[in-house]
Queue: 2 jobs
Job 1
Amino acid sequence: MQFYVDGFRGGNPDIKNAAPTNRREYSTNAPLPEKVDVLIAGTGPAGLCLAAQLAKFPEISTMIVEASPENIERGKADGINTRTMEMFEAFGFADKVKREGYWVNQTNFWMPDPQDRTRIKRLGRVQDVADDSSEMPHAIINQARIHEFFLEVMRNAPTRMQPDYNWSVQSLTVDNSTEDHPVTVVLVNTGVNAGQTKTVRANYVVGCDGARSNVRKAIGGELHGDAAHQAWGVMDILANTDFPDIRQKCLITSATEGNVLIIPREGGYLFRMYVELDKLKDDERVANRNFTAQDTIAAANRIMAPYSIDVKEVVWWSVYEIGHRMTDRFDDVPDSERANRNPRVFTAGDACHTHSPKAGQGMNVSMQDTFNLGWKLAHVLRGQADASLLHTYSQERWLEAKRLVETDHEWARIMSAPPGESELDGGDEPRFVRQFKLNLEFTGGLAVKYDQSRLTGSNQYQALATGEEVGRRFHSAPVVRLSDAKQLQLGHVAEADGRWRIYAFAGENDGSTDSAIHRLADWLEQDANSPVVKYTREGDDIDSVIDFRGVFQQTFDELEYDKMPSLLRPTKGKLGLQDHEKVFCVDHKGLGDIFTMRGINREQGCMIVVRPDQYIAQVLPLKATDELAAFFDGILVQPE
Amino acid sequence: MQFYVDGFRGGNPDIKNAAPTNRREYSTNAPLPEKVDVLIAGTGPAGLCLAAQLAKFPEISTMIVEASPENIERGKADGINTRTMEMFEAFGFADKVKREGYWVNQTNFWMPDPQDRTRIKRLGRVQDVADDSSEMPHAIINQARIHEFFLEVMRNAPTRMQPDYNWSVQSLTVDNSTEDHPVTVVLVNTGVNAGQTKTVRANYVVGCDGARSNVRKAIGGELHGDAAHQAWGVMDILANTDFPDIRQKCLITSATEGNVLIIPREGGYLFRMYVELDKLKDDERVANRNFTAQDTIAAANRIMAPYSIDVKEVVWWSVYEIGHRMTDRFDDVPDSERANRNPRVFTAGDACHTHSPKAGQGMNVSMQDTFNLGWKLAHVLRGQADASLLHTYSQERWLEAKRLVETDHEWARIMSAPPGESELDGGDEPRFVRQFKLNLEFTGGLAVKYDQSRLTGSNQYQALATGEEVGRRFHSAPVVRLSDAKQLQLGHVAEADGRWRIYAFAGENDGSTDSAIHRLADWLEQDANSPVVKYTREGDDIDSVIDFRGVFQQTFDELEYDKMPSLLRPTKGKLGLQDHEKVFCVDHKGLGDIFTMRGINREQGCMIVVRPDQYIAQVLPLKATDELAAFFDGILVQPE
Ligand SMILES: Cc1cc2nc3c(=O)[nH]c(=O)nc-3n(C[C@H](O)[C@H](O)[C@H](O)COP(=O)(O)OP(=O)(O)OC[C@H]3O[C@@H](n4cnc5c(N)ncnc54)[C@H](O)[C@@H]3O)c2cc1C
Ligand SMILES: Cc1cc2nc3c(=O)[nH]c(=O)nc-3n(C[C@H](O)[C@H](O)[C@H](O)COP(=O)(O)OP(=O)(O)OC[C@H]3O[C@@H](n4cnc5c(N)ncnc54)[C@H](O)[C@@H]3O)c2cc1C
């Protein structure tokens, strides 16, 4: 992490200098603003992930309202997949989740013992995160803590952003005839002044207001989908048991009593159980059945026989029915009008797609939604891109949500089906295990791949980097920084700061002053057609829009730092200090060679253009300056 | 990290439940107490490390006073050696230092270019932390931040401890005729009520009040030592340079202009330089020479020619002269009286030994002093040990300080000596480099070895664990936890909580229910002579005094958890919840086999008894229950 570029300041470097414009400077209870750039509804994972990203830009006024009086304390989701952990790294709190959370290392499959079907037996075990699928663990932690980490990022950001609790979005209208804060939002107080309303005008509104979203309703969205008419209980408990795998993720299928999913939790004692309860009748809702926590505990004990659970404290519990539902689009522009106008209102997370909790996707996908939207809003509001960019949010995320609902659906079907004979005799690999393995990349959040578009290039040059697929997330790998010989993950240079990144991988023997990387760097720094030259605002740091990094095939002791192109050693900030963290070498301490690990063409090298949300936009030859210029010309606009 | 053993509680798990007795519960400005168990003078690294440790024990009343009005903001020490990082792990903030600090990976040696002695040239490079010497990096970070991390541990502890700023220890007297708070301390206010005095009575006083310690003076201590009559300048600067190794630690020797030491700092831009200034006359003090920051910058530029430094901001600077001084003992008991009375007053850190800053030892040794003292004070004050234990503090730490002063002295001599011809022709390895390599273990803080005593066993069974030497710190290695297959460092199970640890390494094929580890565990749990049985207070957790852990030679999938002895699966806390984190296996993912790495006898296994400050007290065969009982009988006393 970098700091002090504008001069030394004591204390916690995560606390950024406050921008003079921040509303909270006067008082935490400063009155609501009349107008904002962005109004976010809801402080769930989707809303907070967006707010944390926008909080870094003092030139954008953002407000986030929440109907509840405060953050939640327990319950709801708890699974953080590896992809989300990679994103947390960019927000600066992955280390905290790693330290505090439970790590899912193994998933165990328990099924009726073929010798005695009244007893369950462990029949399989799978490593939960495949080697080198991500540098991050699959972590489990209370959703409330994730909220707190985002809230801390917001509080520490220049805007000192905080939610306005006790305000609910009641309704909104869009006036498509103006560009000046066209969305009028009616907020209603849910606190001490309950019922009091207040009108705020916004340039953009993002509904992160959960499954019953008022924002969705206001733009005419409807959740479609199906329900499996199956009740499940979920509980977070402190309990003792003679079940030996209680600190590992377990999928348990009994012969006649149904299924249980065990998810160990943070702190070493707590764990979660998803327990299959009764089938529901076609017209029956789970709420009408009056299930109790005791029903869930009793069912769990039946399913897990001969083992038993002795519950000491029920921390949280709930019952739900399996269902998957989503809306037709994630913004306010019907397909028929896409060519004519740009979106003003968006929905994200549960507001536009809901999932079966057991697959552990809801919270992850919700955050990935707004991580996709955040930089696009920032680009438009900071004058870096045309507002038509905002169409790509619904396009990209709707397709992903659809894929997720389909996979999720398949998984739930398999989980709820009675085990077939073939999987009990130990002959076949059980269907469970097979499907689970197939799904690992998917449940890790790593299978997301955006289709070719103005944001995502073709696979024309994919052969130059076979392990870094265009449209998928940039897959980190170990490197060593040239200036200080530090081992680190290349992907960790990406912060959630709305910047683009170009990783230039040097060809063989590159490192001299006359090489493809040098020529690319010099072109980027000086040529009139270079996106760095064209799109960087005068007076801003040269890497403020596009952050250029070099990766060499040599080890750190084989390269000369003073021979590096000047774009890889730029001066920055108020004091004009030199940045020494742009050049990387291969790891020399046994963690692996990034060129081999990611299939980078050693002879030619290549450049990989990565979006602010960590997805790969382009893989190009080092000399493809025309393609590079054309790509950015299709997205960015010149500063005024 | 473990939490929720007494039931769920939302929010940050590092914030412990407040004890009802804590003074700050009423108000941050609660009046000073009349009597305390421990009064600590000074909030430098030594004082804060002690306070952070005692803060965890609500039954001990501790106060820490500081003459200054608040924490420092910049300057002073910045090097955290690997041993100190290991200790920070036990306090829970090593991750923060790792994330925020600079890592010293390589040290470079620059000397006059043999071809042209007016220019410096890089003549050597050494990996700064030898492979597997510690799992921790050598980190560099502002001393003020270390203070803040300790202050946070204190604030979050049950006692909610905070320093009483603006109170200086003026004098103290010890009444050896009473056991009831025999030390009377006169505090004088240095804030708004400047000059006001206040008397506090304490059972123990620890002078962590720096080189001019009043506490030391009060117990008749005097610093003896020598000075090299050589002035050095030190500055923390934001600067640009064409010197290519500016982000690596560098020792630079010029032909005629003297030496410079470069220490890169946190944040990517800041760095520190130690710059050799003039020789002082015999009776001259550095303060009388009126050196300026500009003098130091100018000298640095002369030494580093042909490279130059363009300083943009001087964050902090100082001049000093090299010197090494220490007192004859670190407590108030002269040798002649050791047999008759126990110490009541201690000194730690700079109060009893000062060093040349460049070796980067002062801050580290100061904290190691009080980490040694902290658990001993806690043992005595909580009735776990007899007060004679407190003699061992001065015994152990005085010898270490002496060794440090000697090494430090040698190093300073070499650093200040003009380079001999033999090291300039590139033939020999320069003296610098040779000595630096020899010193690495020492400067890492890893060479500390306490002599045989009631706390430190003999080397009789050392062959059972050749890589875990009795008297030295327990050297961590990778393991996998059986219950959840998590990879971790065995040493990281040790928290700064005043508990002893026994790591039982299983012999070959151990893992069945009839094995040496099982017999040891059962003896520990049940036998009347077992230290666990004898010294654990009724109603306390069975691991509250001695934390027993098992390490097996199998991988996690080869062992059955339900076959483990019950002491390795104890129930704990208010709810009687089972602890699943006591059993470890060898790493199966390529990080190495702990038995091989630490030379553990595979056939017999062994047990390693580790003190609360992470030093190895005993290496014993698994069946040596008599020796184990005798060892603890020599230290612990039975609870009343
Ligand atoms: C009871 C429950 C149990 C769950 N259990 C699991 C589980 O076991 N596993 C799992 O993976 N997922 C679970 N989920 C789903 C998971 O929590 C969601 O997928 C995730 O929280 C979605 O994030 P979000 O930000 O889109 O919406 P939410 O987290 O639902 O956040 C929406 C926020 O908007 C607020 N809000 C609503 N309406 C308004 C309004 N009009 N104005 C202002 N604010 C408003 C709400 O108070 C809420 O804070 C559960 C959800 C619920 C509700
Ligand atoms: C100006 C300066 C520069 C240094 N530079 C370096 C360096 O470059 N590199 C390096 O490794 N080390 C350096 N050191 C040394 C390093 O900081 C010390 O070794 C380390 O801080 C020792 O820790 P300590 O807790 O023993 O004492 P200190 O950190 O000195 O803390 C003593 C504390 O006690 C307080 N105090 C003093 N008297 C009283 C009293 N009577 N009552 C109450 N409180 C009192 C002081 O205000 C101070 O806060 C420097 C020290 C100083 C003073």
Note: Residues A 41-47, 65-68, 76-77, 79, 143, 168-169, 208-210, 214, 234, 318, 349-351, 357, 360, 362-363, 366 surround flavin-adenine dinucleotide (ligand 1) (CB under 6 Å).
Job 2
Amino acid sequence: MRILFLGDIVGHPGKQMVEQWMPKLITHFRPDLTIANGENIAPNGRGITERLAESLFDVEVDIITLGNHTFDQRESMQLISTDRRIVRPANYPQGTPGQGYTLCRAGDGQIAIINLLGRSFMGDYDDPFRTADRILAEIGDQTAHIFLDMHAEATAEKVALATYLSGRVSAVIGTHTHVQTADERILPGGTAFLTDVGMCGPYDSIIGFHKDGVIQKFLSQMPTRFEVPQGEAQLHGVFIETDSRGRAVSIERISITPNRPWQTNGFLN
Amino acid sequence: MRILFLGDIVGHPGKQMVEQWMPKLITHFRPDLTIANGENIAPNGRGITERLAESLFDVEVDIITLGNHTFDQRESMQLISTDRRIVRPANYPQGTPGQGYTLCRAGDGQIAIINLLGRSFMGDYDDPFRTADRILAEIGDQTAHIFLDMHAEATAEKVALATYLSGRVSAVIGTHTHVQTADERILPGGTAFLTDVGMCGPYDSIIGFHKDGVIQKFLSQMPTRFEVPQGEAQLHGVFIETDSRGRAVSIERISITPNRPWQTNGFLN
Amino acid sequence: MRILFLGDIVGHPGKQMVEQWMPKLITHFRPDLTIANGENIAPNGRGITERLAESLFDVEVDIITLGNHTFDQRESMQLISTDRRIVRPANYPQGTPGQGYTLCRAGDGQIAIINLLGRSFMGDYDDPFRTADRILAEIGDQTAHIFLDMHAEATAEKVALATYLSGRVSAVIGTHTHVQTADERILPGGTAFLTDVGMCGPYDSIIGFHKDGVIQKFLSQMPTRFEVPQGEAQLHGVFIETDSRGRAVSIERISITPNRPWQTNGFLN
Amino acid sequence: MRILFLGDIVGHPGKQMVEQWMPKLITHFRPDLTIANGENIAPNGRGITERLAESLFDVEVDIITLGNHTFDQRESMQLISTDRRIVRPANYPQGTPGQGYTLCRAGDGQIAIINLLGRSFMGDYDDPFRTADRILAEIGDQTAHIFLDMHAEATAEKVALATYLSGRVSAVIGTHTHVQTADERILPGGTAFLTDVGMCGPYDSIIGFHKDGVIQKFLSQMPTRFEVPQGEAQLHGVFIETDSRGRAVSIERISITPNRPWQTNGFLN
Ligand SMILES: [Fe+2]
Ligand SMILES: [Fe+2]
Ligand SMILES: [Fe+2]
Ligand SMILES: [Fe+2]
Ligand SMILES: [Fe+2]
Ligand SMILES: [Fe+2]
Ligand SMILES: [Fe+2]
Ligand SMILES: [Fe+2]
């Protein structure tokens, strides 16, 4: 199975970048399934709306994952609660609207997409390790193709979860730091791993937000409004191929920036 | 000026990896100066000792930077206090033993090496932005070649500091997360930047520590002793070249892992 | 039912203070049950041992609760795993040795003692609110007398939990900050509440630890060993009386310090 | 000198409570100076406005201290920048508008009022210990009457600062947790100390905010708007008397709640 995943889409520049490049990415990678993290796609970089989700579906994004900004736009509650193509972190507390994983058709099989939040330096969510165990038990033998977006800050927590799930899922791909890491590998048992996939959003920015605002925040320690600047954008993603048993056979990082219009780095098992 | 920098060296496997590869790295890159982050070189991954510092100097590491584990080995206090080749984070409180930056000869010029700690998700250190300002004022026109090791957790804080210092230092290279990022670039004014350079240490590990211990910590939330495992190791670093005015002209990531014995990724201005 | 509860016992001075005063407290309050938080009773202020637990049982402490230092002494694992008089926080992850609540006879009835950890500024534990719900369901109609030690840092989290459980438990008494608060009250439905009961330990100290060490830690930001000083001690506790339906009818703070040898402050419904 | 201090005033109910009780408090305590923490007086509990500051001055509050919510109301920037009766935390970074301490006449002498922020579980401010040292040096022998509002979360940090300044200031009174502690004492050298003075605001609330909102936040981990409820209010403060050399001779807690309309607890040296 051929899986394309795009990192946190930030604001309008991120959305535009995805819209512009998706046709080329599809032509190049011929994915059976495209997933994108949409937690920052709202104009202010916080949350998602129904209209913005639709704009991603329009360019052939199949599934949208989220993160700690899941519920930042009030109007998205309906979307998150009902749309089977939207996956919010599974370790939000019991009773949270929406679904923590979804199953869908891709290629000539099925795939499960899971979203989890880390806790280190993040918030008070349920245990992501045990939540993963529970979901894998629920998935059972419905499919061996399992993609997990681990939305977390700490490298240790992401590597630990991937190691814990090694051989039990097809891929653990980190999101949230908005900076792509260079450590793609395939763990024993065929689990593709990357600590962070990076983001799709403004290039001349601080992790997608206006440079001046973020620097001002660090300098002043005062409440500061972060804004998503306009201008040139970048796109980061990852392409994973699995065999018929759901084992990853390759993982390839994707990075498109104004300076380096198309760059991939691969890892073949 | 040609500068080689190696990320956090973790335990005995990290030290061995550096000892094994330094001759080849020197042959290949012909650095005028080699810097390494030594905050994790003690056998348990915490701190440094005089003997271990000497072992790095023996393989032609010129300068050792540190981080949040600077003072974890009591016996290193003397070393840190007196050795001009050791740089501890400059934003430890006033009166802290040791130096926050050093000036040394490299090639046919001078270079300043600065070490700073981030505060986001870290500890209660002095403001790294204003500390950088103060040090740059102290350096004045002694040299335009300035290398800064920004030891920090949060991507936003690292990118913000680099952006803040853009055009005022030759390079801002992040350390601490132990995972190399793929975002090397040269910021306006000639400041080479990489969010994190990664580490030198055990490959089959969780950021350098024994997998079982780290996973057990996340699963049990109990006090857990982290140990540095033996076995195959990896090395991560970065090579930067500056022009005569101290502006970066290239930055090249270095990654040596058991699977990919030598890989570099460059960025040319 | 008459319930006496003593706050975190810190080190040898805390133990001695409890040993010295328990006879007088028992004479004065005639408790049906005495509970003490023992998470800091080890000589270094971290954790508990079997011998130290026995010394509390010897002076008629009936039940020992714990906190974030529960597992700091390795040798206590056996004690915590098997002794029905020891209650460790119930929201440690599933599979943790020991019990999160216990039922015992007191007076002519039964009482349940629950221990929970807060998460704000603490660690990654399970949700204390839902854990409380689950335990209350398990207790069912076995008893209406329910005492809860909420071991937490943030005032908001403690008040929120008490408010959430108002009318469902007899008492929610906070521990962990080692400073007694002055906000005792009885919430609607008969739930006695106090944000923090304070500690039993060295008086001339910083929350039970040697003043110089703690100040040095704040000044230097270096690793610092905290020690429990010898010298005069203080004792803090709370006395609660419930009616036959398990509703609190009174809550009275107890504070014994070198300057004010016996002081209580009551709140009658 | 006779000093009256009121804890964090929360919203309209807090303001009304202060307006209602100040005449009686003044009659009873005959203060030479009244200080109040106004960081939560805005209707939503975040920050202050010029009009609200004036309403406090109108009821004979002389000096207003602040905290981590200092800059939450944009329109207060002018007030904070220019009014000598407003003191914002001194350890905001250099260049922050406003003043970190003020000197004013009280009785037949002078008094300095200092405001500091803690860092543990708070934000990235300058070192409160060294900032206190610097301010005390600036005050020099202008006055020996020095009142310090330590706005901090962690008990250890507050006790440590008070211990550090013992004998150098007249009083260190904690704010921020909104719950009054019961540990008033006079430290060696004549420094009155109380870990937290508590707040003036809604009684049937969670630290001043609507119970349902705060509980919902803990239960859902979603973004939740905290509101200040109307209804009965409480007032918490402290009264300190110093001798002519600026040494505290007494400290008396003040607590006025719907259930206990007037209660004080004193400590005489
Ligand atoms: Fe994001
Ligand atoms: Fe995120
Ligand atoms: Fe490190
Ligand atoms: Fe580090
Ligand atoms: Fe404790
Ligand atoms: Fe504790
Ligand atoms: Fe406040
Ligand atoms: Fe506050």
Note: The mean pLDDT of chain C is 96.
